[in-house]
Amino acid sequence: MGDTLVLLNARAGTLIDAGPERVRDGLVEALDGRCSRSDIRLLKPRDLIAEIQRAATSDYSTIVVGGGDGSVSCAARALAHSGKTLGVLPFGTINLLARDLNMPANVHEAVQALGDATPRVIDLARLNGRVFHSLSGLGFFSQMARAREEVRGTPFGRLIGVGIAAFRALSRTYPFTLDIRTDHHREHVKALAVLVTNNRFNPDWHRPVLDEGTLELHIAEHAGALSKLKASANLLTGAWRNDDDTDGIRSIVARHVVIGRARKRAFAATDGELQRETIPLRYEIMPKALRVLSIG
Fold first, then answer.
1. For domain 132-287, is the CATH number 2.60.200.40?
2. Which end of the chain is more exposed for a tag (fewer CB within 10 A), N or C?
3. Which Gene3D superfamilies match (predicted)?
């Protein structure tokens, strides 16, 4: 791994539950003999972002980030095309990229697996020039990101919290009209949700291929209240991949996607982070843009 810097979100509930000192000791053991030098730091969320940005120009060759998809997205932006290697520890709620890199969901197992991870190169994507690693969504997805922030830190369990967030998101989701352009296609559509993914996801929200060099656009069209409920459920569970009756959820493969609408700005949830973006939304694939540590 060469010189390795490990940056951990000290406020992550997963880390707190696992025991910060136990995790640190496990990292020391996992990295022993596998890197020439290691530096492990537990940081507040704001400091974590600043350290990730500084790490991009440091003399460390491997940067390991322990956090959620938002922190990992920041690291992907900082390290894209840098020649440095990004390692990911799953300290968030969804952990999409960590799952796709076959990192165990259990923190202690992931720490031990890190020592056996090997480098590979994967694709990234961009929204209006901003790099992301997994997905970006409008409509229901932006409402879901907003609702998840509202229930974060509440005394509910994680699964109950996700359920409450989904209910709130569904109640706030209304159809909107979009102009969508892809490589060889253009259409106007009235939708409940739009999702753009970096490479293709399976029904279990796992990407079997991370360097296919393509985006996939998913459109959940509006067709009444009942379809709104089923489409939202299908989008959350990935069931539209297996269900012939998908209530108007369509998928289009492309390398470039442009989304326009009447408003000048719109909220998009990108790798779990809610951002207000300028219209039109311009998505593009970044083939083989990031070197990462992966299991298997």
1. yes
2. C
3. 2.60.200.40, Probable inorganic polyphosphate/atp-NAD kinase, domain 1 (3.40.50.10330)
Strand pairing class (3-9; 62-67)? parallel
Among candidate residues 22, 23, 26, the one with its CA nearest the CA of residue 8? 23
Given a cut of 70, whether residue 187 has pLDDT beyond it is: yes
80: nearest Cα among 291, 272, 294? 291
Lowest mean pLDDT among 59-68, 79-88, 246-255: 246-255
Beta strands in 140-280, from DSSP E residues, in sequence order: 176-182, 185-198, 215-221, 249-254, 256-260, 265-270, 273-278
> Which of 63-67, 133-137, 146-150, 176-180 is least confident?
146-150
Residue with tokens 């000290």: 10
Return the number of other C-beta atoms located less than 10 Å from residue 57's C-beta. Answer: 10
Q: State the Cα torsion 271-274-275-277 to the nearest 10°.
A: 80
Q: Which has the closest alpha carbon to 136: 210, 241, 211, 218?
A: 218
237: left (phi > 0), else alpha (psi -120 to 50), else beta?
A: alpha
Rounded to whole angstroms, what are the CA distances from 280 to 92, 128, 129, 177, 222? 30, 8, 12, 13, 21
Q: Residue 176 pLDDT > 70, yes or no?
A: yes
Q: Count of CB atoms within 10 A of residue 49's CB?
A: 19
- Distance (Å, whole) CA 59 – CA 55: 8
Q: Where are the domains of the chain?
A: 3-116, 132-287
Q: Which residue type does 252 have? A: I
For 163, list phi and psi in degrees, rounded to 5.
-65, -45
d(CA 83, CA 63): 11
Separation CA 86–CA 290 (nearest Å): 8
Residue 221's pLDDT band (cuts 50, 70, 90): confident
For residue 77, the one-letter residue type is R
Q: Which class is 3-116 in CATH?
A: alpha beta
